[in-house]
C-alpha cells in the first residue's frame, strides 16, 4: 500500500509518531552537545507534535457530513489547523530567539559533536521522508492541513541542515558565538514560514477564488459544451464565480436559454453542463441559475464577465 494513498487522518497519526521520534533524537543531540542550535531545533519538533495533534483534530471535524447547523459541511475546519500551526511556529521562534540571546551573551563550549550531528541528521531523514509522502497525499486529497504539515516538516529539514553546517563551522573555527547566532537565524526563518501559513489559512477562510489554472479548465469546458450545442440554438454562460473550502471546490454561474423553452428541456441541458464541469474539475460542486436570454440577475458577483457565449446569428 502506498503511503500517499492513506487518508489525511491516518497520515497525521504517522506524523505524530514521527514528531515523537524526532523530539527524542533532537533532544538527545542538544543534551549531549550543549548546542543552542540543536536545542532550538528540538524545540521546533515540539511545535511539530502540537501541530500534528491539532491538525488531526481539525481533519476529523472536516470529515463530518453536512448537518442542519452546517448545511455546507465542515470542510473549512482545516484552515484553522493551518493558522494554528503558523501561530505555534511564530511562538516557538520567539522562545528560540530569547534563549539564543542569553547564550550569545554567555557562550558555552560544545561537546560530543559527532553524536549530536548524527542524531540530528537521522531525525531530518525521518522528517524529509514523511514530508515527501504528505505532499503527494495533499495533492491527492486537496488537503491544506496535510500540505501545511508537510511544509512545516520541510522547514524543519532545512533548518536542521543549516544547524549542522553551522556546528561544523564552529568545530573548525572555535567561534562559540556562531552557535547562538545560528539559532537566531533558524528562528527568523521559522517566523517567515509561520507567517505564510497564517496568511494562507486567512485567505481560505475568506472564500478565495480557485487558482487561475482551474478556472481556465472551467471556461474551456463551457466553451466545448457551447460548441456542441446544435446549430441555431441560443445559449449563453456568464457570471462565473468560484471559491474553495479546504477539499471542496465550488462554482456558480448563470446559464441563459431561450425564454420559450420548457423547464424540463432547460433543466436537462443544465444537468449536462454540470456533468461537463465536474468531469473537468473532480470534486467540484456546481450551482447553475437558469435565466431566459435577455434577462440579467439583479445581484451578480463583482467584476464578473461572460464566461462563454453561443447564440444564433440574427
- Uncertain regions: pLDDT < 50 for 5+ in a row? 302-306, 309-314
**CATH class annotation of the largest domain:** Mainly Alpha
Number of domains: 2
Share of β-strand residues: 5-15%
Mean pLDDT across all amino acids = 78
Helical fraction: 55-70%
- The order of strands across the largest sheet is 3-2-1-4
Alpha-carbon distance between the two ends: 60 Å
Number of helices: 8
Task: Tell me the CATH architecture of the largest domain.
Answer: Up-down Bundle
CATH homologous superfamily (4th level) name of the largest domain:
Cation efflux protein transmembrane domain
Overall description:
There is one protein chain. The protein is built from eight helices and four strands; from the N terminus they run αααααααββαββ. The protein has 314 residues and is an alpha+beta fold. The chain folds into two domains: 203 residues, Alpha-lytic protease prodomain-like; 99 residues, Cation efflux protein, cytoplasmic domain (Alpha-Beta Plaits), CATH 3.30.70.1350. Strand 2, helix 8 and strand 3 form a beta-alpha-beta unit. Helix 2 runs antiparallel to helix 3. The longest helix is centred in the middle third of the chain and has 30 residues. The protein is elongated, with a radius of gyration of 26 Å. The C terminus is likely disordered.
Amino acid at each position: 500500500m502506498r503511503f500517499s494513498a492513506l487518508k489525511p487522518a491516518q497520515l497525521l497519526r504517522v506524523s505524530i509518531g514521527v514528531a515523537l521520534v524526532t523530539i527524542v533524537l533532537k533532544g538527545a543531540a542538544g543534551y549531549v552537545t550543549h548546542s543552542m542550535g540543536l536545542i532550538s531545533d528540538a524545540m521546533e519538533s515540539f511545535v511539530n507534535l502540537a501541530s500534528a495533534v491539532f491538525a488531526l483534530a481539525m481533519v476529523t471535524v472536516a470529515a463530518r457530513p453536512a448537518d442542519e447547523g452546517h448545511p455546507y459541511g465542515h470542510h473549512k475546519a482545516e484552515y484553522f489547523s493551518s493558522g494554528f500551526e503558523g501561530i505555534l511556529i511564530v511562538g516557538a521562534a520567539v522562545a528560540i530567539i530569547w534563549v539564543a540571546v542569553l547564550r550569545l551573551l554567555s557562550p558555552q563550549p560544545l561537546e560530543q559533536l559527532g553524536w549530536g550531528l548524527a542524531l540530528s541528521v537521522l531525525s531530518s531523514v525521518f522528517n524529509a521522508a514523511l514530508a515527501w509522502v504528505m505532499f503527494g497525499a495533499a495533492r491527492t486529497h486537496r488537503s491544506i492541513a496535510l500540505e501545511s504539515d508537510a511544509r512545516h516538516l520541510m522547514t524543519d529539514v532545512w533548518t536542521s541542515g543549516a544547524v549542522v553546517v553551522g556546528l561544523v563551522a564552529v568545530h573548525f573555527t572555535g567561534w562559540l558565538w556562531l552557535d547562538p547566532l545560528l539559532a537566531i537565524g533558524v528562528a527568523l526563518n521559522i517566523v517567515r514560514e509561520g507567517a505564510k501559513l497564517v496568511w494562507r489559512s486567512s485567505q481560505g477562510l475568506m472564500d478565495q477564488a480557485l487558482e487561475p489554472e482551474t478556472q481556465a479548465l472551467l471556461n474551456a469546458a463551457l466553451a466545448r459544451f457551447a460548441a456542441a450545442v446544435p446549430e441555431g440554438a441560443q445559449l449563453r454562460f456568464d457570471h462565473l464565480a468560484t471559491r474553495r473550502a479546504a477539499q471542496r471546490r465550488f462554482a456558480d454561474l448563470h446559464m441563459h436559454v431561450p425564454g420559450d423553452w420548457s423547464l424540463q428541456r432547460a433543466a436537462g441541458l443544465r444537468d449536462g453542463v454540470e456533468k461537463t464541469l465536474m468531469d473537468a474539475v473532480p470534486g467540484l460542486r456546481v450551482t447553475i441559475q437558469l435565466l431566459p436570454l435577455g434577462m440579467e440577475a439583479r445581484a451578480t458577483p463583482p467584476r464578473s464577465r461572460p464566461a462563454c457565449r453561443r447564440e444564433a446569428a440574427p
